[in-house]
Specification:
Radius of gyration: 19 Å
Shape: globular
Number of helices: 12
Number of domains: 3
Number of strands: 14
Largest sheet: 5 strands, antiparallel
CATH topology of the largest domain: Uridine Diphospho-n-acetylenolpyruvylglucosamine Reductase, domain 3
Strand content: 15-25%
Oligomer: single chain
Order of helices and strands: EHEHEEEHHHHHHEEHEEEEEEEHHH
CATH architecture of the largest domain: 2-Layer Sandwich
CATH class of the largest domain: Alpha Beta
Structural class: alpha+beta
Helix content: 25-40%
Length: 290
């Protein structure tokens, strides 16, 4: 491993400056970056530790504005935030699948996004929950919808010298439910073959679907918001024809590859299967909420 310079700024402006001037690699938890550096997959000359920056460690919920999740907040902290488990269970489910308990004490949702993996366990939930990524650079702040944050395998919307500061998730609609599922060959610590998140909003009759969002990961170069799958559910009582149409739309929308974890054909099939199951999970969550 080549020598590198380590920086631990306490201010966001300093971190942005270091990222721009030195071309430094940001370190949130380091569970991906350090491993990749040791394996020679990425070359790191300067590393900027973000853990001491207050703006990146925000974790708070407000009924009007929703959730603010700093990019350096460890995944383990999400389980201790009661509104997340109650209102955003799909996000918590994804975060709890990122590595072991030890890794979750370091790894962050922000790092999970910035790694740019189409199989990232938190991105699909953030997409269906209409999350927004707040980015800071030398020219100021800007926002990017979660659905547009990943631009390709290992690539994101971050420009050189920019940092992901926080993720903002609006409060969910009153009559709603959400859920996240992934399929993996092993029971623990594996990468998704396919993953799906669903978010449903219901009418006052508590049976008719007013709005639906379905996102599929690990089955295309980037996670996908499958709008056709959502439209298939809107206006229905989630009967068999609607569920079948949504599953077919998900299978049709993906652009998978063959690799060691599964064939493209199998991924297409599982995209439909998991769509139905994630919808069922969201329905159950809604019913359990009263």
């Amino acid at each position: 491993m080549k020598p590198l310079e380590y920086h631990a700024p306490g201010a966001l402006d300093d971190a942005v400056r270091l990222s721009a001037e030195a071309g430094a690699s940001p370190l949130a938890g380091g569970t991906d970056l350090i491993v990749q550096h040791r394996m020679g997959r990425v070359e790191v000359a300067h590393m900027v530790d973000l853990k001491k920056i207050p703006e990146l460690n925000v974790l708070e919920f407000d009924k009007k504005s929703g959730l603010r999740l700093g990019a350096a907040v460890p995944c383990a902290a999400l389980a201790e935030c009661e509104p997340i488990g109650r209102l955003y269970p799909s996000l918590l489910e994804g975060a709890e699948l990122i590595g072991s308990t030890q890794i979750q004490s370091r790894a962050s949702v922000g790092g999970n996004l910035c790694n740019g993996s189409p199989a990232a366990d938190t991105i699909c939930a953030l997409i269906v929950l209409d999350a927004v990524c707040v980015i800071q650079g030398a020219n100021g702040s800007r926002e990017v919808a979660a659905k547009d944050f990943m631009t390709g395998p290992g690539e994101t919307a971050l420009n050189k010298g920019e940092l992901l500061v926080e993720i903002r998730v609006p409060p969910p609609a009153p009559l709603s439910g959400n859920g996240y599922l992934r399929f993996i060959p092993r029971n623990e610590m594996d990468i998704a073959v396919v993953c799906v998140a669903a978010h449903l909003v219901f009418d006052k009759d508590r049976e008719t679907c007013l709005d639906a969002k379905i996102a599929v990961g690990a089955a295309a170069p980037t996670p996908l918001l499958v709008e056709q799958a959502g439209r298939a559910l809107i206006g229905s009582k989630l009967d068999e024809p609607a569920l079948k149409a949504a599953a077919q739309a998900a299978s049709k929308a993906v652009r998978p590859i063959d690799d060691a974890r599964g064939t493209a054909e199998y991924r297409r099939h599982m995209a439909g299967v998991l769509t139905r199951r994630a919808v069922g999970m969201a329905v159950n969550r809604f019913k359990e909420s009263g």
